[in-house]
Protein backbone atom coordinates (compact mmCIF):
# COMPACT_ATOMS: atom_id res chain seq x y z
CA UNK A 1 0.00 0.00 0.00
CA UNK A 2 1.18 3.52 -0.72
CA UNK A 3 0.19 7.12 -0.62
CA UNK A 4 0.75 10.10 -2.91
CA UNK A 5 0.40 13.65 -1.60
CA UNK A 6 -0.53 16.99 -3.21
CA UNK A 7 -2.70 15.53 -5.96
CA UNK A 8 -3.04 18.18 -8.66
CA UNK A 9 -4.38 16.33 -11.72
CA UNK A 10 -7.95 15.62 -10.66
CA UNK A 11 -9.42 15.96 -14.14
CA UNK A 12 -7.02 13.34 -15.52
CA UNK A 13 -7.75 10.96 -12.66
CA UNK A 14 -11.51 11.43 -13.00
CA UNK A 15 -11.35 10.47 -16.69
CA UNK A 16 -9.40 7.28 -16.00
CA UNK A 17 -6.14 8.75 -17.34
CA UNK A 18 -4.32 9.16 -14.02
CA UNK A 19 -0.93 7.51 -13.64
CA UNK A 20 -2.27 4.39 -11.91
CA UNK A 21 -5.00 3.79 -14.49
CA UNK A 22 -2.51 4.22 -17.34
CA UNK A 23 -0.02 1.90 -15.62
CA UNK A 24 -2.70 -0.72 -15.11
CA UNK A 25 -3.67 -0.61 -18.78
CA UNK A 26 -0.04 -0.84 -19.88
CA UNK A 27 0.70 -3.86 -17.70
CA UNK A 28 -2.60 -5.74 -17.92
CA UNK A 29 -4.10 -4.35 -21.10
CA UNK A 30 -7.79 -3.46 -20.93
CA UNK A 31 -8.65 -6.25 -18.51
CA UNK A 32 -9.37 -3.72 -15.79
CA UNK A 33 -12.20 -2.34 -17.91
CA UNK A 34 -13.52 -5.85 -18.49
CA UNK A 35 -13.42 -6.51 -14.76
CA UNK A 36 -15.42 -3.37 -14.04
CA UNK A 37 -18.04 -4.44 -16.58
CA UNK A 38 -18.26 -7.88 -15.01
CA UNK A 39 -18.56 -6.33 -11.57
CA UNK A 40 -21.39 -4.05 -12.70
CA UNK A 41 -23.22 -7.07 -14.11
CA UNK A 42 -22.74 -8.94 -10.84
CA UNK A 43 -24.18 -5.98 -8.95
CA UNK A 44 -27.49 -6.46 -10.76
CA UNK A 45 -28.15 -9.47 -8.54
CA UNK A 46 -30.27 -8.13 -5.64
CA UNK A 47 -28.91 -10.79 -3.30
CA UNK A 48 -26.70 -9.17 -0.68
CA UNK A 49 -24.99 -10.37 2.47
CA UNK A 50 -26.24 -7.34 4.36
CA UNK A 51 -22.83 -5.76 4.77
CA UNK A 52 -23.26 -3.01 2.20
CA UNK A 53 -25.34 -1.76 -0.63
CA UNK A 54 -25.29 -2.91 -4.21
CA UNK A 55 -23.63 -1.94 -6.45
CA UNK A 56 -20.68 -2.99 -4.27
CA UNK A 57 -17.30 -4.16 -5.40
CA UNK A 58 -17.37 -7.75 -6.62
CA UNK A 59 -14.25 -9.70 -7.56
CA UNK A 60 -14.31 -10.71 -11.21
CA UNK A 61 -14.29 -14.37 -12.10
CA UNK A 62 -11.48 -13.66 -14.53
CA UNK A 63 -8.36 -14.52 -12.52
CA UNK A 64 -6.14 -12.57 -14.89
CA UNK A 65 -7.96 -9.28 -14.50
CA UNK A 66 -7.33 -6.29 -12.28
CA UNK A 67 -10.33 -4.92 -10.41
CA UNK A 68 -10.42 -1.20 -9.59
CA UNK A 69 -12.63 0.61 -7.07
CA UNK A 70 -13.06 4.32 -6.41
CA UNK A 71 -13.69 6.04 -3.07
CA UNK A 72 -14.16 9.68 -2.09
CA UNK A 73 -13.79 10.73 1.56
CA UNK A 74 -15.39 14.05 2.58
CA UNK A 75 -16.67 15.64 5.77
CA UNK A 76 -16.16 18.21 8.48
CA UNK A 77 -12.84 20.11 8.57
CA UNK A 78 -10.56 18.69 11.24
CA UNK A 79 -12.72 15.61 11.72
CA UNK A 80 -9.78 13.22 11.28
CA UNK A 81 -10.25 12.06 7.68
CA UNK A 82 -6.50 11.94 7.00
CA UNK A 83 -5.80 10.05 10.24
CA UNK A 84 -8.42 7.43 9.43
CA UNK A 85 -7.15 6.89 5.90
CA UNK A 86 -3.57 6.75 7.15
CA UNK A 87 -4.58 4.14 9.73
CA UNK A 88 -6.24 2.13 6.97
CA UNK A 89 -3.27 2.29 4.57
CA UNK A 90 -0.51 1.86 7.17
CA UNK A 91 -2.03 0.15 10.24
CA UNK A 92 1.37 -0.36 11.88
CA UNK A 93 2.27 3.33 11.75
CA UNK A 94 0.34 5.95 13.70
CA UNK A 95 -0.12 9.41 12.23
CA UNK A 96 -2.28 11.30 14.71
CA UNK A 97 -1.19 14.77 13.54
CA UNK A 98 -1.31 14.75 9.74
CA UNK A 99 -1.00 17.89 7.64
CA UNK A 100 -4.32 19.53 6.68
CA UNK A 101 -5.60 18.38 3.30
CA UNK A 102 -5.90 21.10 0.65
CA UNK A 103 -8.55 20.35 -1.99
CA UNK A 104 -8.20 16.84 -3.45
CA UNK A 105 -5.52 14.44 -2.30
CA UNK A 106 -5.02 11.08 -4.00
CA UNK A 107 -4.09 7.81 -2.33
CA UNK A 108 -4.27 4.20 -3.42
CA UNK A 109 -4.23 0.70 -2.00
CA UNK A 110 -3.50 -2.63 -3.65
CA UNK A 111 -4.45 -6.13 -2.65
CA UNK A 112 -3.74 -9.55 -4.14
CA UNK A 113 -6.82 -11.76 -4.39
CA UNK A 114 -5.03 -14.88 -5.63
CA UNK A 115 -1.54 -16.08 -6.41
CA UNK A 116 -0.15 -15.27 -9.85
CA UNK A 117 -2.90 -12.72 -10.47
CA UNK A 118 -2.77 -8.92 -10.73
CA UNK A 119 -3.43 -6.98 -7.56
CA UNK A 120 -6.74 -5.18 -7.28
CA UNK A 121 -6.44 -1.41 -6.95
CA UNK A 122 -8.48 0.94 -4.76
CA UNK A 123 -8.29 4.58 -5.82
CA UNK A 124 -8.99 6.82 -2.82
CA UNK A 125 -9.50 10.58 -2.84
CA UNK A 126 -9.72 12.78 0.22
CA UNK A 127 -11.43 16.16 -0.17
CA UNK A 128 -10.26 18.82 2.29
CA UNK A 129 -11.25 22.42 2.78
CA UNK A 130 -14.72 21.80 4.20
CA UNK A 131 -17.94 22.87 2.51
CA UNK A 132 -16.14 25.52 0.43
CA UNK A 133 -14.67 22.79 -1.80
CA UNK A 134 -17.81 20.65 -2.07
CA UNK A 135 -18.18 21.44 -5.78
CA UNK A 136 -15.24 19.05 -6.33
CA UNK A 137 -17.37 16.07 -5.30
CA UNK A 138 -18.13 15.34 -8.95
CA UNK A 139 -14.45 15.24 -10.02
CA UNK A 140 -13.19 11.80 -8.87
CA UNK A 141 -16.42 9.83 -9.35
CA UNK A 142 -18.67 10.01 -12.39
CA UNK A 143 -20.46 7.91 -14.97
CA UNK A 144 -17.20 6.23 -16.06
CA UNK A 145 -16.55 4.61 -12.64
CA UNK A 146 -20.01 4.81 -11.10
CA UNK A 147 -20.52 1.05 -10.68
CA UNK A 148 -17.49 0.56 -8.38
CA UNK A 149 -17.67 3.75 -6.34
CA UNK A 150 -18.15 4.45 -2.65
CA UNK A 151 -18.51 7.65 -0.58
CA UNK A 152 -17.36 8.23 3.00
CA UNK A 153 -18.67 11.16 5.08
CA UNK A 154 -16.67 11.80 8.27
CA UNK A 155 -18.04 13.91 11.14
CA UNK A 156 -16.47 14.99 14.42
CA UNK A 157 -18.14 13.72 17.60
CA UNK A 158 -16.24 16.30 19.65
CA UNK A 159 -18.40 18.95 17.90
CA UNK A 160 -21.86 17.34 18.00
CA UNK A 161 -23.76 20.55 17.22
CA UNK A 162 -22.16 20.68 13.74
CA UNK A 163 -22.89 17.09 12.75
CA UNK A 164 -26.42 17.37 11.32
CA UNK A 165 -25.68 20.37 9.10
CA UNK A 166 -22.55 18.80 7.63
CA UNK A 167 -24.10 15.38 7.01
CA UNK A 168 -27.07 17.03 5.30
CA UNK A 169 -24.83 19.23 3.17
CA UNK A 170 -22.48 16.48 2.00
CA UNK A 171 -25.27 13.99 1.40
CA UNK A 172 -27.10 16.50 -0.77
CA UNK A 173 -23.92 17.18 -2.75
CA UNK A 174 -23.21 13.50 -3.24
CA UNK A 175 -26.77 12.70 -4.31
CA UNK A 176 -26.75 15.56 -6.80
CA UNK A 177 -23.50 14.27 -8.32
CA UNK A 178 -24.82 10.70 -8.47
CA UNK A 179 -28.04 11.91 -10.06
CA UNK A 180 -26.05 13.56 -12.84
CA UNK A 181 -24.08 10.35 -13.45
CA UNK A 182 -27.28 8.28 -13.56
CA UNK A 183 -28.81 10.71 -16.05
CA UNK A 184 -25.76 10.36 -18.29
CA UNK A 185 -25.76 6.55 -18.12
CA UNK A 186 -29.51 6.43 -18.78
CA UNK A 187 -28.96 8.10 -22.16
CA UNK A 188 -27.20 4.96 -23.40
CA UNK A 189 -29.49 2.54 -21.55
CA UNK A 190 -33.07 3.73 -20.84
CA UNK A 191 -33.59 0.81 -18.42
CA UNK A 192 -30.52 1.66 -16.33
CA UNK A 193 -32.29 3.96 -13.84
CA UNK A 194 -35.03 1.43 -13.04
CA UNK A 195 -32.53 -1.38 -12.59
CA UNK A 196 -30.35 0.78 -10.35
CA UNK A 197 -33.34 1.70 -8.19
CA UNK A 198 -34.18 -1.98 -7.62
CA UNK A 199 -30.59 -2.76 -6.66
CA UNK A 200 -30.41 0.27 -4.36
CA UNK A 201 -33.48 -0.77 -2.36
CA UNK A 202 -32.50 -4.46 -2.33
CA UNK A 203 -30.34 -3.94 0.77
CA UNK A 204 -33.48 -3.17 2.80
CA UNK A 205 -35.33 -6.31 1.77
CA UNK A 206 -38.88 -6.53 0.47
CA UNK A 207 -40.38 -6.76 3.95
CA UNK A 208 -38.59 -3.79 5.52
CA UNK A 209 -41.18 -1.49 7.20
CA UNK A 210 -39.45 1.68 5.97
CA UNK A 211 -39.00 0.64 2.35
CA UNK A 212 -41.33 3.36 1.04
CA UNK A 213 -39.98 6.08 3.34
CA UNK A 214 -36.21 5.99 2.95
CA UNK A 215 -34.35 7.80 0.14
CA UNK A 216 -31.13 5.77 -0.19
CA UNK A 217 -28.15 6.89 -2.21
CA UNK A 218 -27.59 4.62 -5.26
CA UNK A 219 -23.85 4.52 -4.51
CA UNK A 220 -22.70 2.89 -1.23
CA UNK A 221 -22.48 5.55 1.45
CA UNK A 222 -20.66 5.33 4.80
CA UNK A 223 -21.10 7.77 7.71
CA UNK A 224 -18.11 7.68 10.06
CA UNK A 225 -18.61 9.40 13.43
CA UNK A 226 -14.98 9.95 14.40
CA UNK A 227 -13.27 10.86 17.70
CA UNK A 228 -15.43 8.52 19.72
CA UNK A 229 -12.70 8.50 22.38
CA UNK A 230 -13.79 12.07 23.27
CA UNK A 231 -17.52 11.45 22.87
CA UNK A 232 -17.68 8.35 25.09
CA UNK A 233 -17.14 10.52 28.18
CA UNK A 234 -20.31 12.57 27.51
CA UNK A 235 -23.37 12.07 29.69
CA UNK A 236 -25.79 9.33 28.69
CA UNK A 237 -28.59 11.69 27.59
CA UNK A 238 -26.29 13.50 25.17
CA UNK A 239 -24.91 10.23 23.77
CA UNK A 240 -28.43 8.91 23.23
CA UNK A 241 -29.59 12.09 21.46
CA UNK A 242 -26.61 12.36 19.11
CA UNK A 243 -26.77 8.63 18.43
CA UNK A 244 -30.45 8.90 17.49
CA UNK A 245 -29.73 11.74 15.07
CA UNK A 246 -26.85 9.83 13.44
CA UNK A 247 -28.95 6.68 13.06
CA UNK A 248 -31.86 8.66 11.63
CA UNK A 249 -29.73 10.43 9.00
CA UNK A 250 -27.90 7.23 8.08
CA UNK A 251 -31.11 5.22 7.77
CA UNK A 252 -33.00 7.72 5.63
CA UNK A 253 -30.04 7.95 3.23
CA UNK A 254 -29.36 4.22 3.13
CA UNK A 255 -25.90 4.66 4.66
CA UNK A 256 -23.79 2.43 6.87
CA UNK A 257 -23.00 4.10 10.22
CA UNK A 258 -19.81 3.48 12.18
CA UNK A 259 -18.33 5.20 15.23
CA UNK A 260 -14.56 5.30 15.08
CA UNK A 261 -11.41 6.68 16.67
CA UNK A 262 -7.84 6.77 15.43
CA UNK A 263 -6.78 6.13 19.05
CA UNK A 264 -8.82 2.93 19.51
CA UNK A 265 -7.44 -0.23 17.90
CA UNK A 266 -10.73 -2.13 17.96
CA UNK A 267 -12.59 0.72 16.24
CA UNK A 268 -9.79 1.14 13.69
CA UNK A 269 -9.99 -2.56 12.90
CA UNK A 270 -13.76 -2.26 12.40
CA UNK A 271 -13.21 0.68 10.02
CA UNK A 272 -10.55 -1.26 8.14
CA UNK A 273 -12.84 -4.28 7.74
CA UNK A 274 -15.67 -2.08 6.48
CA UNK A 275 -13.46 -0.40 3.87
CA UNK A 276 -12.06 -3.75 2.74
CA UNK A 277 -15.63 -4.89 2.17
CA UNK A 278 -16.34 -1.92 -0.09
CA UNK A 279 -12.96 -1.54 -1.77
CA UNK A 280 -11.96 -5.18 -2.25
CA UNK A 281 -15.16 -7.19 -1.72
CA UNK A 282 -13.69 -8.78 1.40
CA UNK A 283 -16.10 -10.75 3.62
CA UNK A 284 -17.71 -8.68 6.36
CA UNK A 285 -20.37 -9.37 8.93
CA UNK A 286 -23.61 -7.43 9.15
CA UNK A 287 -23.35 -4.59 11.69
CA UNK A 288 -26.17 -3.98 14.15
CA UNK A 289 -24.94 -2.26 17.32
CA UNK A 290 -27.42 0.44 18.36
CA UNK A 291 -26.91 0.63 22.14
CA UNK A 292 -26.19 4.29 23.07
CA UNK A 293 -23.57 3.27 25.64
CA UNK A 294 -21.52 1.50 22.94
CA UNK A 295 -19.92 2.66 19.67
CA UNK A 296 -22.65 2.62 17.02
CA UNK A 297 -22.17 0.25 14.09
CA UNK A 298 -25.19 -0.24 11.82
CA UNK A 299 -25.14 -1.63 8.29
CA UNK A 300 -27.22 0.03 5.60
CA UNK A 301 -30.79 -1.27 5.78
CA UNK A 302 -30.35 -2.85 9.22
CA UNK A 303 -32.11 -0.09 11.22
CA UNK A 304 -35.74 1.03 11.48
CA UNK A 305 -37.43 4.33 12.27
CA UNK A 306 -39.50 2.57 14.93
CA UNK A 307 -36.32 1.59 16.77
CA UNK A 308 -34.66 4.97 16.31
CA UNK A 309 -37.69 6.97 17.47
CA UNK A 310 -38.79 4.66 20.26
CA UNK A 311 -38.07 7.55 22.66
CA UNK A 312 -38.19 10.79 20.60
CA UNK A 313 -36.15 13.73 21.94
CA UNK A 314 -37.78 16.31 24.20
CA UNK A 315 -41.51 16.75 23.74
CA UNK A 316 -41.49 15.56 20.12
CA UNK A 317 -43.45 12.66 18.69
CA UNK A 318 -42.82 10.09 15.97
CA UNK A 319 -45.09 12.06 13.64
CA UNK A 320 -42.82 15.12 13.94
CA UNK A 321 -40.15 13.19 12.04
CA UNK A 322 -42.10 10.72 9.91
CA UNK A 323 -45.34 11.69 8.19
CA UNK A 324 -47.83 9.80 6.07
CA UNK A 325 -45.93 10.59 2.87
CA UNK A 326 -42.39 10.07 4.21
CA UNK A 327 -39.75 11.94 6.18
CA UNK A 328 -40.95 15.36 7.33
CA UNK A 329 -39.32 18.34 5.60
CA UNK A 330 -38.02 19.88 8.82
CA UNK A 331 -36.77 16.64 10.43
CA UNK A 332 -33.08 17.54 10.12
CA UNK A 333 -33.69 21.03 11.53
CA UNK A 334 -35.54 19.45 14.47
CA UNK A 335 -32.58 17.21 15.27
CA UNK A 336 -30.28 20.22 14.94
CA UNK A 337 -32.32 22.26 17.41
CA UNK A 338 -32.41 19.53 20.06
CA UNK A 339 -28.67 18.83 19.78
CA UNK A 340 -27.85 22.53 20.12
CA UNK A 341 -30.02 22.72 23.24
CA UNK A 342 -28.16 19.78 24.76
CA UNK A 343 -24.62 20.39 23.49
CA UNK A 344 -24.36 24.13 22.85
CA UNK A 345 -24.47 26.31 19.75
CA UNK A 346 -23.18 25.28 16.35
CA UNK A 347 -20.26 26.91 14.53
CA UNK A 348 -20.76 29.73 12.02
CA UNK A 349 -20.07 27.36 9.12
CA UNK A 350 -22.64 24.83 10.33
CA UNK A 351 -25.25 27.56 10.81
CA UNK A 352 -24.61 28.82 7.27
CA UNK A 353 -25.01 25.29 5.91
CA UNK A 354 -28.23 24.85 7.88
CA UNK A 355 -29.62 28.11 6.44
CA UNK A 356 -28.72 26.94 2.95
CA UNK A 357 -30.46 23.60 3.52
CA UNK A 358 -33.58 25.36 4.82
CA UNK A 359 -33.64 27.61 1.74
CA UNK A 360 -33.36 24.56 -0.51
CA UNK A 361 -36.27 22.83 1.24
CA UNK A 362 -38.38 25.96 0.95
CA UNK A 363 -37.90 26.00 -2.80
CA UNK A 364 -39.52 22.58 -3.06
CA UNK A 365 -36.64 20.77 -4.70
CA UNK A 366 -37.31 17.49 -6.46
CA UNK A 367 -37.67 14.40 -4.33
CA UNK A 368 -37.42 16.26 -1.03
CA UNK A 369 -33.65 16.00 -1.20
CA UNK A 370 -33.00 19.69 -1.57
CA UNK A 371 -30.54 21.41 0.64
CA UNK A 372 -27.24 23.07 0.34
CA UNK A 373 -26.54 21.83 -3.14
CA UNK A 374 -27.64 25.07 -4.73
CA UNK A 375 -30.46 26.10 -6.96
CA UNK A 376 -32.70 29.13 -6.85
CA UNK A 377 -29.96 31.69 -6.34
CA UNK A 378 -30.49 31.84 -2.59
CA UNK A 379 -27.73 32.85 -0.12
CA UNK A 380 -24.06 32.09 0.16
CA UNK A 381 -22.17 30.67 3.15
CA UNK A 382 -20.28 33.97 3.58
CA UNK A 383 -22.37 36.93 4.89
CA UNK A 384 -20.00 39.39 3.19
CA UNK A 385 -20.91 37.93 -0.20
CA UNK A 386 -24.62 38.29 0.54
CA UNK A 387 -24.10 41.91 1.60
CA UNK A 388 -22.09 42.78 -1.50
CA UNK A 389 -24.61 41.12 -3.80
CA UNK A 390 -27.49 43.02 -2.18
CA UNK A 391 -25.56 46.27 -2.61
CA UNK A 392 -24.90 45.61 -6.29
CA UNK A 393 -28.51 44.60 -6.88
CA UNK A 394 -29.63 47.91 -5.39
CA UNK A 395 -27.20 49.85 -7.59
CA UNK A 396 -28.47 48.03 -10.66
CA UNK A 397 -32.09 48.79 -9.74
CA UNK A 398 -31.33 52.48 -9.30
CA UNK A 399 -29.39 52.61 -12.57
CA UNK A 400 -32.26 51.06 -14.49
CA UNK A 401 -34.75 53.41 -12.89
CA UNK A 402 -32.64 56.45 -13.77
CA UNK A 403 -32.11 55.18 -17.32
CA UNK A 404 -35.87 54.76 -17.79
CA UNK A 405 -36.49 58.29 -16.50
CA UNK A 406 -33.90 59.75 -18.87
CA UNK A 407 -35.35 57.82 -21.80
CA UNK A 408 -38.81 59.23 -21.14
CA UNK A 409 -37.38 62.75 -20.81
CA UNK A 410 -35.46 62.38 -24.09
CA UNK A 411 -38.58 61.17 -25.83
CA UNK A 412 -40.60 64.19 -24.70
CA UNK A 413 -37.85 66.62 -25.76
CA UNK A 414 -37.25 64.84 -29.06
CA UNK A 415 -40.81 65.41 -30.31
CA UNK A 416 -40.59 69.27 -30.68
CA UNK A 417 -37.05 68.93 -32.07
CA UNK A 418 -38.26 66.56 -34.77
CA UNK A 419 -40.97 69.02 -35.82
CA UNK A 420 -38.39 71.83 -35.96
CA UNK A 421 -36.00 69.72 -38.04
CA UNK A 422 -38.68 68.83 -40.54
CA UNK A 423 -39.54 72.51 -40.88
CA UNK A 424 -35.89 73.61 -41.30
CA UNK A 425 -34.77 70.71 -43.52
CA UNK A 426 -33.12 68.58 -40.82
CA UNK A 427 -30.76 71.13 -39.27
CA UNK A 428 -29.74 70.77 -35.64
CA UNK A 429 -29.52 66.96 -35.60
CA UNK A 430 -25.98 66.94 -34.21
CA UNK A 431 -26.76 69.28 -31.33
CA UNK A 432 -29.81 67.23 -30.28
CA UNK A 433 -27.74 64.03 -30.23
CA UNK A 434 -25.02 65.73 -28.20
CA UNK A 435 -27.59 66.93 -25.67
CA UNK A 436 -28.94 63.39 -25.36
CA UNK A 437 -25.44 62.03 -24.72
CA UNK A 438 -24.88 64.56 -21.96
CA UNK A 439 -28.04 63.45 -20.21
CA UNK A 440 -27.14 59.71 -20.30
CA UNK A 441 -26.36 58.45 -16.74
CA UNK A 442 -23.06 56.74 -15.94
CA UNK A 443 -22.52 53.69 -13.71
CA UNK A 444 -19.63 55.36 -11.87
CA UNK A 445 -21.90 58.15 -10.67
CA UNK A 446 -23.97 55.52 -8.86
CA UNK A 447 -21.06 53.70 -7.16
CA UNK A 448 -21.06 53.41 -3.34
CA UNK A 449 -18.11 55.85 -3.13
CA UNK A 450 -20.10 58.56 -4.88
CA UNK A 451 -22.91 58.44 -2.34
CA UNK A 452 -25.61 56.04 -1.26
CA UNK A 453 -28.63 58.18 -2.09
CA UNK A 454 -30.62 57.82 -5.29
CA UNK A 455 -30.01 60.40 -8.05
CA UNK A 456 -32.10 63.55 -7.73
CA UNK A 457 -34.91 64.11 -10.20
CA UNK A 458 -34.94 67.19 -12.48
CATH class call of the largest domain: Alpha Beta
Based on secondary structure, the structural category is alpha/beta
Number of domains: 2
Number of E-type strands: 11
The end-to-end distance, rounded to whole angstroms, is 77 Å
Would you summarize the structure shown here?
This protein is α/β, with parallel strands linked by helices and 458 residues long. The protein contains 14 helices and 11 strands.
Describe the secondary structure blueprint for this structure.
Blueprint (H helix, E strand, L loop, with lengths): L1 E2 L6 H5 L4 H10 L2 H12 L25 E8 L5 H9 L14 E8 L8 E8 L21 E8 L6 H26 L3 H11 L18 E6 L1 H4 L4 H17 L3 E4 L5 H16 L7 E2 L7 E2 L6 H4 L13 E2 L2 E2 L3 H13 L4 H15 L20 H42 L4 H11 L19
Parallel strand pairs: 2-4, 2-5, 5-6, 6-7
Antiparallel strand pairs: 1-3, 3-4, 7-9, 8-9, 10-11
Helix pairs in contact: 5-11, 5-12, 8-11, 13-14
Name its key features.
458 residues, alpha/beta, Rossmann fold, two-stranded antiparallel ribbon, globular
Protein described:
It comes from Tribonema minus. Residues 369-380 have a biased composition (Gly residues). Residues 30-55, 360-458 are annotated as: Disordered. Pfam families: DLIC (PF05783). One of its GO terms (cellular component) is cytoplasmic dynein complex. This protein is of the alpha/beta class and 458 residues long. It has two domains: 2-368, Rossmann fold (3-Layer(aba) Sandwich); 383-450. The protein contains 14 helices and eleven strands. The strands form two sheets. A nine-stranded mixed beta sheet has the order 1-3-4-2-5-6-7-9-8, sandwiched between helices. A two-stranded antiparallel sheet has the order 10-11. α5 crosses α12 (348-362), α8 packs antiparallel against α11 and α13 packs antiparallel against α14 (429-439). The N and C termini lie far apart (77 Å).
